[in-house]
Design a protein that fits this description.
By secondary structure, this protein is α/β, with parallel strands linked by helices. The protein has 9 helices and 11 strands. Strand 7, helix 7 and strand 8 (about 240) form a beta-alpha-beta unit.
Length: about 325
């Protein structure tokens, strides 16, 4: 399994690997690329793995020489995709735009999932490699094993309900900001969409016709910024008392009665957990760049997204993350 991205993306890849292992009765190994998305994300799920399941947690990409002192969650300005010079990564980018990459991958026995459940189910027992985008899957056996892996690691599992009913949050919003701030200032090769307009969250909450005022919590890579944006839209939200730790955030989201996500693999993973815990989840149906979902999860409703305009002051290439952002990665930097 060839994977990249943050901790949530890594979890989704692990879930896909477990699903294929169960289906084909074949062991898997993970090869992790911490820089290939154009943003630096260290490997973060080693505690969920058996020793034989990790082949490499640091596969480098060609043309990237500066890998020291990178900031987690920030776009790598020295990345080959950001350079105008001819490079191996630039060639790959052209191949992707010509829609030839998947054909070439097939020639070498690699299945690219492209975030499609249909592609996941097409992976055969003789496939030599599987690459992303990995698919959010609500599979009972996979979720049960993920629950067991979290418990065995001594971490609160997001794949089961363990909070007392009185302590469960009514509504949790995942408001992804971070490197989305650079949507309009970095090269299109990095992909991605803009920042959700908080008014869409307000619309969803209002549509529920709740009889009493719910307790609303926002989870974000920049919680104070997210809290302020929500307030502008008329939503008063608290934040997680523990900051910078995705696992604590994921656990909090998983225990919610209602979860509202933005376009993010963190939101997709949380939605799987909330749905499995018999909660109600909402996810956007597409990105700003037109990408649409090719999968379904029982208990998840999809809404038409709304994004902040290009002129909004929040967009900046030289954004600064909160001091405690991505704290869970601090001891994993390469």
């Amino acid at each position: 399994m060839k994977l990249a991205g943050g901790a949530a993306a890594q979890c989704l890849a692990l879930m896909n690997a477990i699903y294929l292992r169960n289906k084909h009765e074949r062991d898997f190994q993970l090869f992790y690329f911490p820089h290939s998305t154009g943003t630096y994300w260290p490997f973060a799920i080693d505690f969920l793995l058996e020793k034989h399941e990790l082949a490499s947690s640091n596969v480098n990409i060609k043309g990237l020489e500066e890998i020291n002192n990178l900031e987690v969650g920030k776009i790598i300005k020295s990345h080959p995709l950001a350079a105008r010079r001819f490079s191996y990564e630039r060639v790959l980018s052209i191949i992707r735009k010509l829609k030839l990459e998947r054909f070439l991958q097939k020639l070498r026995g690699e299945d690219a999932l492209l975030a499609s459940r249909k592609n996941l189910d097409k992976v055969g027992s003789k496939s030599k490699a599987v690459s992303g985008g990995f698919v959010p899957i609500a599979d009972l056996q996979v979720s049960k094993e993920m629950d067991q892996r979290f418990v065995a690691a001594g971490k609160p599992s997001p794949f089961s309900i363990s909070l007392e009913d009185s302590k469960r949050p009514d509504i949790v919003i995942h408001f992804r900001i971070g490197d989305k701030r650079a949507k309009f200032s970095h090269p299109s090769d990095f992909g991605g969409d803009g920042i959700s307009n908080p008014q869409i969250f307000k619309t969803i909450i209002d549509s529920m016709n709740l009889e009493s005022s719910p307790k609303i919590t926002v989870v974000s890579d920049e919680p104070e910024v997210a809290q302020a944006l929500l307030k502008e839209a008329g939503i008063e939200a608290g934040t997680n008392a523990v900051t910078g730790n995705l696992w604590e955030d994921l656990y909090l989201m998983s225990q919610a009665r209602v979860f509202i996500g933005s376009w993010s693999q963190v939101s997709q993973l949380a939605a799987i957990c909330v749905s499995g815990n018999r909660g109600k989840a909402f996810l956007p149906s597409s990105t700003q760049v037109g990408t649409k979902i090719n999968w379904q999860i029982d208990g998840v409703s999809f809404y038409s997204p709304l994004f902040l305009e290009k002129e909004h002051m929040i967009y900046s290439e030289n954004f600064s993350l909160d001091v405690n952002a991505h704290e869970a990665y601090k001891n994993k930097q390469l």
